[in-house]
Amino acid sequence: MSNASYRFRESERTLMQRLFEAPAVGKMSPVAKIVAYSLLAVWSVFVLFPIYWVIITSFKDAAAVNQGPFYIPFVDFHPTLDAWRTQFTEDSFCTVGAIGRQLWLLVYNSFVFVVSPVVSLDPMEPQICKIYLAFTNSVVISIFSTAVCVIVGSMAAYALARIQYAPRFGNIMMFVLLLVGVIFATTYAGIPWWASSSVALAFFFFLVRALRGYFKMHLRNGDILFWIISQRILPPIVVVIPLYVMFQAVGLLDTHLALILLYAVANMPIVVWLMYDFFSNLPIELEESAQLDGATRPYIFWDIVLPLTRPGLAATTLLILVLSWNEYLFAVFLATVKVQTMPIMVAAKNAGEKGVFWWEMCAVIVVMIIPVIVMAILLTRFISKGVLLGAVKG
Amino acid sequence: MAEYGHKASVRFENVEKSFGDVKVLRDFDLEVEPGEFVVLLGASGSGKTTALRILSGLEQPSAGSVHIDERNVTEILPKYRDISMVFQSYALYPHKTVAENIGFPLRVRGMEKAEIDAATLDSARQVQLESLLERYPRELSGGQRQRVALARAIIRRPSVFLMDEPLSNLDAKLRGHMRAQLKHMQKSLGTTTIYVTHDQIEAMTLAHRVAILERGILQQLATPAEIYNDPANLFVAQFIGSPPMNVIHGKLDGQDFVTNGVRVQTTASGQIEDGVMGVRPEDCSLATPSEGTLTCKIYTNELIGDHALVTVEWGDDQISVKAPKDFTGEQGDEVGVHIPRNHIFVFDRADGRRVR
Amino acid sequence: MPTDTTISQPGAIPAGVSRRERLAEWVDRNSGTFFIAPAVTLILIFAIFPTIYSIFFALSRVRFTSDGLQFRFVGLRNFSKQFFGSSEVHFLGRTDPVSLFGYACFAAVVIAVLYWWIRSFRTSTWVGMLGRTISAAMAIFLSWILCASLLSGNSIGTLYTTLFYVIIGCGIQFVIGTGLAFLCSQPISGKNFFRVIFFIPLMITPLGVGYAMRMVADVTKGPFEPLLQAIGLSDWVWSADAWSARFMMMVSDSWQWIPFIFICMLAALENIPRDHVEAAQVDGASSVQIFREITWPQVLPVAVSVLLIRMIEAFKIVDLPNIMTGGGPGSATESMTLHSMYIWRANDFGQSAAIAYLLLLLTVVTCASFFNYVVMGQIRKARA
């Protein structure tokens, strides 16, 4: 056979080949293209339609909702701002003056919050616009809890990536046993918790000293890391009942602090998991060099390690921010009146006696999801660069 | 803070280091005079970098002690050892400018900004970097990055410099240039320097003394000339020199080395059944088949440029000879190899010991 | 707990160090503790302590009194109620008349599990064997419930409703998500647009998703009402039938979670070295062959990890059934979390904690089994 017979001629291809064969490496055939784009289009509609429906419903009035489906504003129904007006202006406390005062209180309280550990946004007396209250609560809780979570979590992740730990397994078992003992004593024997726990703590330190040589088995960094990450498996419903009782005992029920700490702990495994990956991929010479030059570990962490992981840190922060913003179960148990977050407020709209005012609810939902959609768009930019994939690769 | 010209001595005393079951450094003793340039030379895994890291404090020895200026620093944090280190990867902070990189050691120590700026400019000038101070490391070439790392090391005016293969990431041409600059700088600053490399040329050209390590054991510590002319054992003899020293197997009988039935006179004396005779290619010369010490067949003839490298077969061994560049022998030709008596080294093959 | 850590921070501070430096020095030397202590403390207080505390709730009858909570030890009664007592139907489903088909299926499953269990004697250590025994016991118990309830034509309880969301839901999400990721990894234009659009649902508040879906799926005022009327289903109400309600729940859950699978799998697919695929294309491999021989084996380790993460989160499902159906009709769409929450609302703390604990047990055993037998296997294969 001569070489010429192998030559590829466009004109010799049959119709079938033209339709189904890719014209070149790295291109798609016409049929494949049509199938791919139509699938993508169908899925885009599936994804966007519920969001679209929520948005247009928020511009409907009662009639437009109740008299059957209307799809396109200005075409088959007349959009109104009624629902929005009810939320923002007809709430008699939603005036510029009241919101201004609350804004000032927000700044003030955030400051106080940092200074003293136990503060709720207390002057949030009922004389305030509901949606504003919920929105600020959500903002304050998610920002503070994300800050706590990312700072504490990345510190732990860094330590696990760079410092060798070897806690004795026996000591940990002892700690857990004493913890069980403390709870037993307080629940069944009626001993006050502060008494039993201080006795147990004293016991713990005594036993750690006394039994130093007996326990040979040590845990490694990998075990600690696995322990922290595996906390994510814990269903929140398991801890929420005891937490309710605990917070009640120390008077933290329905405060910002309670939710901030809880969200921080619930999301900590994700931070540790993602940040551990970023930190262990940094070249260690940078830190060693800084160490030789006299930098302390906290200084190295702050001045060298964190700036180098900035993209990862930003992506992790965004993710945690979204998760805290969306959280529902803890809030439903622990934040009943004062620190209602956006999801709780939306859920409360469900319990009307005259049926659900869908148009009002949709307005609140739109307010609730606009921040997360913005964050989602920011986050995709990181993900498309592959910033968050490293950890999944195992 | 020490002034330029402060010269510290360094002493390793019986330092051992093992990672799990692997012993990377065994009974390591080394004394470095003030102001001396010592090169630790060895293949990868020989323990040379570990020795350097133990001196820097990044690694703790399993046993033994390290002294700087008669002060036992084994238990002292790296930052109090008054040393600075240049890493193979340079370890420049990518998010800091050149100026910030160079000034980092002073900033960590909480010095005034004006002082830091002055010192930064001063040390940048020493390595001709003053025009690049505002750039970021990613905008620099390899040689420039290397110089930033040097500037960061000298800004603190330490009493000991540590360098971990600082030139190995550069291309060959630049490496020669940087080598000269490094030698010049060390000479003018006069700071005690310990330099780790696997490149024998760097070791021979830079060092006052070379320490050769193999499998965690110090093989020889001597000046480059001594190492070349008077190797302590077979390993050192083969490690130094390019192309490497020829080895010819046989036995030592009195003053004669017997190989394949031929007796070669040497300066060594003794009785060794399993011995090795070493001779450098540049010390051998070619002769007519009847004249040479040994008569061999040519294996290959390579023209290098200023000389020809002729490899001949002697029993199971191959002998390389540096011949004049106009040598025209062909593969398979018979040729005589002349080996001068006083350039022959004899080693015991069992432990590589030099027989004198 | 991190009381005895070994950090390579040797010895003494030289003389002539100021007090301020001494403080910095002390912080530096103990940095190992300072860095990890906040995280460990927070987790101990807000995760470990409540988890242990929860056991005492589950083992007690808890009552509110004027001076706080009153615990009365009742042993395992709260748990046994879920399996044999008053709550059995609610939790396990109706298991009473077991059909012949149910018995046959159960026998088949038991034989398969026992075969796997006995065969692994040869290869496992005793720790591994212990784990396998737990997994096998759980598998046999779950399959008995399945055979006695669903496969015998009886109704299922919250246990299997949860497992339905986890297994069927995750499976469907995984297939669709991977398919979309594969489509988006093809040479198409507008990739970034699709990436953003497809990602958004994941970030939307689950509660908002619940309400949005409830509106969209509304049979009288929702957007599909004309369509239902046209095909003659105007009287049909999905929330009145157990399986259609569960199905709607799964659709909504998938709407939210397919993006997660999609985004992870897309990143994994794009991470495959381009030259592998191009070399195969030059060799004339069809796209099906390329996917099966080159792409799939390389993304499989990521795929199983992603599936594991998704499973862990799926066990926690509560918002959607709570919003969309309130757990109804009856308790058909109630997940275990919601079940526990409703009992908590009825002030029975003990039973509520018991169900939560059963959920924890189910989650841990299932996820640990999946991790050990599937994920680790893939990771080992990828490393080998």
Write the layout of secondary structure elements.
The complex is a heterotrimer of chains A (394), B (356) and C (384).
Chain A: H1 15-20, H2 30-57, H3 62-66, H4 82-88, H5 96-115, H6 130-162, H7 169-187, H8 193-210, H9 221-230, H10 236-249, H11 256-280, H12 284-292, H13 297-308, H14 310-326, H15 329-334, H16 342-348, H17 358-384
Helix pairs in contact in A: 2-17, 4-17, 6-11, 6-14, 7-8, 9-11, 11-14, 12-13, 14-17, 16-17
Chain B: E1 10-19, E2 22-32, E3 37-41, H1 48-56, E4 63-68, E5 71-72, E6 83-86, H2 98-108, H3 113-126, H4 142-154, E7 160-164, H5 172-189, E8 192-197, H6 200-206, E9 209-214, E10 217-222, H7 224-229, H8 234-239, E11 246-259, E12 262-279, E13 285-287, E14 294-303, E15 308-314, E16 317-323, E17 334-338, E18 345-348, E19 354-355
Parallel strand pairs in B: 3-8, 3-9, 6-7, 7-8
Antiparallel strand pairs in B: 1-2, 1-4, 4-5, 9-10, 11-12, 12-18, 13-17, 14-15, 14-17, 15-16, 18-19
Chain C: H1 19-29, H2 31-58, E1 60-65, E2 68-73, H3 77-83, H4 88-91, H5 100-119, H6 126-148, H7 158-185, H8 191-203, H9 206-216, H10 225-230, H11 242-271, H12 274-282, H13 287-314, H14 319-324, H15 336-345, H16 349-383
Antiparallel strand pairs in C: 1-2
Helix pairs in contact in C: 2-16, 3-16, 5-6, 6-16, 7-11, 7-13, 8-11, 11-13, 12-13, 13-16, 15-16
Give the class-level CATH name of the largest domain in chain C: Mainly Alpha
Considering DSSP H and I runs of 4 or more, what fraction of the residues of chain B is helical?
A: 10-25%
Helix content of chain C: over 70%
The appropriate CATH architecture of the largest domain in chain C is Orthogonal Bundle
How is the main sheet of chain B built? Answer: 6 strands, mixed
Strand fraction of chain B:
35-45%
Q: What is the CATH homologous superfamily assignment of the largest domain in chain C?
A: MetI-like
Count up the helices of chain C. Answer: 16
| Corresponding CATH architecture of the largest domain in chain B | 3-Layer(aba) Sandwich
| End-to-end gap of chain B | 49 Å
Structural class designation of chain C? mainly alpha
Overall pLDDT metric of chain B:
88
The CATH superfamily of the largest domain in chain B turns out to be P-loop containing nucleotide triphosphate hydrolases
Cα gyration radius of chain C (Å):
26 Å
Return the string of H and E elements of chain C. Answer: HHEEHHHHHHHHHHHHHH
Helix count, DSSP H or I runs of 4 or more residues of chain B: 8
* Secondary-structure element pattern of chain B, one letter each: EEEHEEEHHHEHEHEEHHEEEEEEEEE
Strand percent estimate of chain C = under 5%
State the strand order across the main sheet of chain C: 1-2
CA-based shape of chain B: elongated
Looking at the structure, the CATH topology of the largest domain in chain B is Rossmann fold
